[in-house]
Amino acid sequence: MMRRRTTLLTGCTALALALGATACSGGGPVSAGGGDKALNGQTVTVAGVWSGSEQKNFQKVLDAFTEKTGARTRFVSTGDNVSTVVGSKIEGGNAPDVVMVPQVGVLQQFAENGWLKPLSGTTRKAVDANYATVWKDYGSVDGTLYGLYFKAAHKSTVWYSPEALDTAGVEPPKSYDEMLKAGRTVSDSGLAAFSVAGQDGWTLTDWFENVYLSQAGPEKYDALAAHELKWTDGSVVDALTTLGELFGDKRLLEGGSKGALNTDFPGSVEKVFGPEPEAGMVYEGDFVAGVAKDQFGRKIGEDANFFPFPPVDGGKAPVVSGGDAAVVLKDGKNTDAGMALLEYLATPEAAAVWAEAGGFLSPNKKVDPAAYGDDVTRTTAESLIAAGDSVRFDMSDQAPAAFGGTKGAGEWKILQDFLRDPSDPKGTAAQLEAAAAKAYKG
């Protein structure tokens, strides 16, 4: 679901790969073999959730690592259930060397199981120098850095059809209330305001997290993410009430709640940017652009654009993120070469390979913005970097999977029920607390 690939490298990246010299954008010497083929004859096995264009684009990064070091790579797609697949491979004596972990909770689980090697001094120095502290914190367990965040997502972007907003005579809103007002005006002009992917529970958790982070603030967000604050807290009820104002307004939802519950994420993008638009706006992360561009031929920045998720009740505009962290398994057959791969992934030129291909954001501050293929992606990447330590990782990805990441259960199912009938925020909060208490205890 990401942006179309190209076979071009930036001039900076190509030079670095050819010479194995110094990192671009002000980085230090490249540590992954230094371009001297020091890992010839070795193979690094990498496991991750990616498939399709994401896997192909990541393979370009792995190929660049091979060109620099001589090490071959083998990517194994795990599907969504990384924890189960990796656990089975470890038990079977076939552990990969590196895993790209998409959830903070899974990274913590791996560390607590004793599966991970701490990252090398070279990688730690790169993270200290080039990443906001929040990314180091999310990659650490009990003060030890195990995960390098290579790929990030910006989940505080609302995508819209400029034609739809122009027809309705509205501008991108600056507050949540303005967004609902603009949505009603769009609805009056003949299109539904929002296409909501209610069939996928994870999209609803993202809606909640943006509202909650802005309305309740980062301290309560962190406490709720760690279940140090109960879901029955008034701040949760307030956020659900705010979200329910949108979910309960038939003028705002394409197809109403029933239509939303029958729409998956790709379908929600199609309803805004497909050949027969049915709505003017769709909320989700920066990866919406890849679907709009690759599947529906939209020109990003011209007939598909975004505005930041607007602040709620006078709070600050939220910046919710997700991401994939690279970790090295103790039981891998080639952990030294795996650690060298992470040292390479920590460099700006490794990120530039995928940035050029598209469908990618890096949390590395030293990545040259020029590496991104279009102005909208560049703006999104710069917004993520500018947010610094105010970025908050997707809350459901920090939770135990039984609560925050299981289809038909926990937060996903409860928020789908809330989308169906948002009339009882207190009751929904109580259900969320009961599910969270059970999952965190387990």
UniProtKB/TrEMBL annotation:
Residues spanning the signal sequence: 1-23
Chain segments annotated as transmembrane: none
Keywords per UniProt: Signal, Transport
Residues forming coiled coils: none
Pfam families per UniProt: SBP_bac_1 (PF01547)
Taxonomy, superkingdom: Bacteria
Family to which the UniProt record says this protein belongs: Belongs to the bacterial solute-binding protein 1 family.
Descriptive protein name: ABC transporter substrate-binding protein
Lineage of producing organism: Bacteria, Bacillati, Actinomycetota, Actinomycetes, Kitasatosporales
